[in-house]
Task: inverse folding
């Protein structure tokens, strides 16, 4: 990850980072994220935001006390929540004179060659125009993320963001989560767990140490993040897992400082973006 160079960056933010424990949007944190992303783009970088949170936001907006248990209930909540989510993003980005575009994807969109090519062209056009794409899985028609593992391509927004990074030939993917990075053991259960600063090889030991889903409001745990790393690194794209509580961490990441866990790709084995 070179310092002070213009980059194409994909930033994924999880449900636990975007929302309060009540499920309602954490507007202060979203505003901070939007401000930093707008500033990063203003410095000449191209930015793509992959966002979670539609089901949690929809659940809160409908006044339900807990996340729906049925597939149709979850899809309905996603439809309501996604509407509010993109509205909030549009409002906040507009304050910094930035335009956003909503892109909702299913597994078929990235699996079928023609559709993936059209999708790639759309991303390229938006980025050339200075628009910030805001991406989510189309939960209202896809059960992949809601019922994890039902589709062989998608299934969570960690995987989605990795596929978007690969499709857009990004230089860097940043996964903003509720944890500081990859540990050698689960820090929630082992107080002596140590943060791993850099990963250059995805070993079987790493995958074995990864647990299940993170929080009740989200679907992604460390296992999905390691799967995302496998996709991004295979495409010559670096990846960082960092805590989303402080959006300003993104500045430090782009400057090459030690933040979270850096998964380093071996670019000489891959394509030349020039």
Result:
């Amino acid at each position: 990850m070179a310092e002070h160079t213009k980059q194409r960056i994909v930033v994924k933010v999880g449900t636990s980072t975007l929302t309060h424990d009540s499920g309602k949007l954490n507007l202060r944190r979203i505003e901070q994220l939007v401000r930093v992303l707008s500033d990063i783009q203003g410095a000449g970088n191209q930015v793509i935001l992959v966002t979670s949170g539609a089901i949690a936001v929809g659940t809160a907006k409908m006044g339900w006390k807990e996340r729906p248990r049925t597939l149709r209930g979850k899809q309905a909540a996603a439809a309501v929540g996604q509407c509010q989510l993109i509205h909030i993003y549009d409002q906040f980005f507009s304050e910094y004179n930035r335009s956003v575009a909503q892109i909702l994807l299913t597994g078929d969109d990235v699996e079928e060659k023609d559709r993936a090519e059209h999708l790639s062209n759309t991303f390229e056009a938006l980025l050339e125009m200075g628009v910030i794409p805001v991406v989510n899985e189309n939960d209202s028609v896809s059960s992949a993320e809601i019922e994890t593992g039902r589709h062989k391509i998608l299934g969570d927004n960690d995987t989605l963001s990795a596929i978007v990074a690969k499709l857009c030939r990004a230089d860097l993917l940043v996964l903003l989560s509720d944890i500081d990075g990859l540990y050698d053991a689960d820090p929630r259960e082992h107080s002596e767990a140590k943060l791993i600063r850099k990963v250059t090889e995805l070993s079987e030991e790493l995958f074995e140490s990864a647990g299940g889903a993170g929080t009740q409001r989200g679907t992604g745990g460390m296992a999905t993040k390691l799967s995302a790393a496998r996709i991004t690194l295979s495409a010559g794209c670096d990846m960082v897992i960092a805590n989303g509580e402080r959006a300003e961490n993104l500045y430090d990441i782009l400057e090459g400082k030690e933040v979270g866990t850096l998964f380093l790709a071996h670019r000489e084995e891959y394509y030349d973006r020039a």
Observations:
- The chain has a mean pLDDT of 84.
- The domain at 8-269 is CATH 3.40.1160.10 (Carbamate kinase).
- The radius of gyration is 17 Å.
- Strands lie at 8-13, 46-51, 100-105, 132-137, 172-177, 198-199, 238-243, 261-263.
